[in-house]
């Protein structure tokens, strides 16, 4: 697999072919964390949630995914309001969540690559509660190949993989569940430049396949390089929304901190 | 990157090697050790601990612990014996009361396990504390029900010590002491429990979720694993198997002892840990636990055959368990 190592190749952004709305968040409020947050993500679109750490970005993601509860507001996926509770029902309705803390909340470090990839989709690989090992091996092997996960075999323990390959394992888990919406919280944190580009290329590919992507990132170049739309949050509120063309480091920075940044 | 997990049914090769070395040493040094009848009685003795320890394996893989299984021996023993000897039941269905008694015993163990799981999962209490409390509560119930005296499985119409082959208590004794061909029934029950436990843990979605929960509870939850359900299930399984072990124990003692099974929780935990299951959760195997129970059984039997006093046996058993876990820890650290 070719890996672009040059700086200009870092953001291989492909123009989005935007379809129908996938995620609609409206009036999402969680006391002390989120205040009347509304936005949409459409099919094939990469939307970035920008803002400082603590501005409520991860809280939004966790509420959408059902990991945390919220006090008021509504979330609907492909036009259907999400009334279920808990991550299980979010997964069943087609949401995948790559968490910020890969080792703490994403991976089962002592289990194999295969077991990590198939975890959320096991029911679809089983009959009468028994895992179809053959199908599981084939299906997970396909993701190892198509995402270029560098591992001696699917039986390798995930803790022996590099950060980038670990991240691809987590991504595979959510591709396997046929997610319609992928939430990526700091998707390239702690992984090397080459793997970052691979993750970006993968995001493009998934968007082109019609998956909606909600990306949370603290790296402005990444936000500017990859997002079709940028939603800026501050203190639990949405304080601005910028289209790809109008976003600059300065504008995002101003919205993020809430005061105009003057040229020195 | 080249570490592979070599294993046979998930058993750590070190555990298996240790077991074989132990058998070889005893075989070489002990008269009659490798004889068939010795093996039969070994299998019979190890059976109860194996049955309990398989349930304990499920709990420990989720990074939990169940200290109440020893007391369950007393509690289930008592209610099983009471159900078995209940005059109303016996008058109605005669030997059929054995089935009633077994059902009562299994149900009793299952309920205790479920309550443990409910407290751990719903009330979010520490497994150690929950099951420690349950250990005393259940023992207390057994003592209160019987006023502290054993419930004998005897026919009151017969003189003391007299047994007839065709009657109830003899048939009940068959569970622990009977044979199918050359194989002790108790060992057969243990074998079935091990095989089913192994299949449940390694082949099913449920088993995978048990490992996931033990490996990283938050990651498991965020991957759609119903961690509450899994937690309650593993403690319920553990309680049910403790109940099954208690039925075998009651059959073997021919009575329900309220003080029966004291310290059995520690034997079960020892079998699990010696078998290579980590107390930190996320890894381990039922087959390993079976080997662990065999190791402890072989040590006790071998020392018995050498006429070594039970005081020395305690020290030696303790030391061997310590060494086994230390060795496992060293191997683990090297593998990274």
TL;DR of this structure?
The complex is a heterodimer of chains A (about 260) and B (about 325). In chain A, about 35% of the residues lie in helices and about 25% in strands.
The proportion of strand residues of chain B reads: under 5%
Biggest β-sheet description of chain B? 2 strands, antiparallel
Biggest pleated-sheet summary of chain A: 6 strands, mixed
Number of distinct helices of chain A: 9
Terminal CA distance of chain B: 10 Å
CATH superfamily of the largest domain in chain A: P-loop containing nucleotide triphosphate hydrolases
How are helices and strands ordered from N to C of chain A?
EEEHEEHEHHEEHHEHEHEEH
Counting helices, strands and paired strands, the structural category of chain B is: mainly alpha
Summed over residues and divided by their number, the pLDDT of chain A gives a mean of 91
Say how many strands of chain A there are: 12
Topology:
The complex is a heterodimer of chains A (264) and B (336).
Chain A: E1 21-30, E2 34-42, E3 46-51, H1 57-65, E4 72-77, E5 80-81, H2 87-92, E6 95-98, H3 102-106, H4 113-118, E7 126-127, E8 130-131, H5 133-146, H6 163-176, E9 181-185, H7 193-208, E10 212-216, H8 220-226, E11 229-234, E12 237-243, H9 249-257
Parallel strand pairs in A: 3-10, 3-11, 6-9, 9-10
Antiparallel strand pairs in A: 1-2, 1-4, 4-5, 7-8, 11-12
Helix pairs in contact in A: 5-6
Chain B: H1 13-29, H2 36-61, H3 69-85, H4 87-93, H5 97-121, H6 127-146, E1 151-152, H7 168-177, E2 179-180, E3 183-184, H8 185-203, H9 205-215, H10 217-221, H11 227-253, E4 255-256, H12 264-274, H13 286-305, H14 310-335
Antiparallel strand pairs in B: 1-4, 2-3
């Amino acid at each position: 697999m070719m890996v672009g190592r040059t700086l200009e190749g870092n953001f291989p952004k492909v123009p989005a072919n935007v379809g129908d709305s996938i995620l609609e968040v409206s009036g999402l409020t969680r006391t002390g964390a989120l205040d009347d947050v509304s936005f949409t993500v459409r099919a094939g679109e990469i939307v970035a949630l920008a803002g400082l750490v603590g501005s409520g970005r991860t809280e939004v993601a966790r509420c959408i995914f059902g990991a945390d509860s919220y006090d008021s507001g509504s979330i609907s996926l492909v036009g259907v309001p999400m009334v279920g509770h808990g991550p299980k029902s979010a997964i069943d309705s087609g949401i995948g969540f790559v968490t910020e803390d890969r080792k703490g909340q994403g991976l089962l470090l002592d289990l194999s690559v295969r077991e990590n990839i198939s975890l959320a989709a096991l029911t679809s690989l089983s009959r009468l509660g028994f895992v179809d090992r053959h199908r599981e091996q084939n299906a997970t092997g396909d993701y190892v190949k198509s995402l270029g996960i560098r591992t001696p075999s699917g039986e390798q323990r995930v803790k022996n993989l590099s950060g980038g390959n670990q991240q691809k394992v987590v991504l595979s888990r959510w591709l396997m569940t046929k997610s319609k919406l992928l939430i990526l919280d700091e998707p390239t944190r702690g992984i090397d430049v080459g793997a970052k580009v691979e993750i970006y290329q993968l995001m493009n590919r998934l968007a082109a396949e019609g998956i909606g992507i909600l990306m949370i990132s603290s790296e402005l170049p990444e936000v500017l390089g990859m997002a079709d739309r940028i939603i800026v949050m501050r203190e639990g509120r949405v304080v601005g929304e910028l289209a790809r063309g109008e976003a600059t480091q300065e504008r995002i920075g101003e919205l993020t901190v809430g005061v105009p940044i003057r040229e020195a | 990157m080249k570490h592979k997990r070599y294993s046979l049914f998930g058993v750590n090769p070190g555990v298996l090697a240790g077991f074989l070395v132990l058998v070889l040493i005893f075989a070489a040094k002990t008269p009659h050790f490798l004889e068939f009848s010795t093996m039969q009685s070994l299998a019979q003795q190890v059976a109860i601990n194996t049955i309990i320890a398989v349930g304990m394996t499920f709990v420990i893989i989720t990074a939990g612990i169940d200290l109440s299984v020893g007391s369950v021996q007393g509690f289930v023993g008592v209610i099983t014996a009471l159900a078995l000897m209940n005059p109303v039941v016996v008058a109605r269905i005669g030997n059929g009361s054995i089935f009633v008694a077994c059902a009562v015993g299994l149900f009793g163990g299952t309920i205790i396990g479920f309550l443990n799981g409910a407290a751990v999962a719903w009330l979010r209490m520490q497994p150690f504390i929950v099951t420690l409390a349950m250990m005393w509560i259940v023992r207390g119930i057994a003592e209160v029900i019987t006023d502290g005296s054993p419930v004998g499985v005897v026919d009151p119409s017969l003189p003391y010590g007299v047994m007839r082959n065709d009657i109830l208590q003899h048939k009940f004794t068959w569970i622990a002491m009977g044979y199918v061909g050359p194989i002790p029934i108790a060992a057969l029950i243990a074998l079935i429990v091990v095989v089913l436990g192994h299949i449940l843990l390694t082949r099913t979605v449920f088993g995978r979720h048990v490992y996931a929960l033990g490996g990283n509870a938050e990651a498991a939850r965020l991957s759609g694993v119903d961690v509450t359900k899994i937690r309650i299930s593993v403690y319920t399984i553990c309680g049910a198997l403790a109940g099954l072990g208690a039925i075998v124990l009651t059959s073997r003692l021919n009575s329900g002892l309220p003080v029966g099974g004291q310290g059995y929780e520690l034997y079960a935990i020892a079998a699990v840990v010696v078998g290579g299951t980590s107390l930190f959760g996320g890894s381990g195997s039922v087959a390993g636990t079976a080997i662990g129970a065999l190791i402890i059984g072989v040590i006790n039997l071998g020392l018995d055959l050498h006429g070594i006093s039970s005081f020395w046996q305690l020290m030696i058993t303790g030391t061997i368990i310590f060494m086994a876990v230390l060795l496992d820890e060293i191997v683990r650290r090297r593998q990274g």
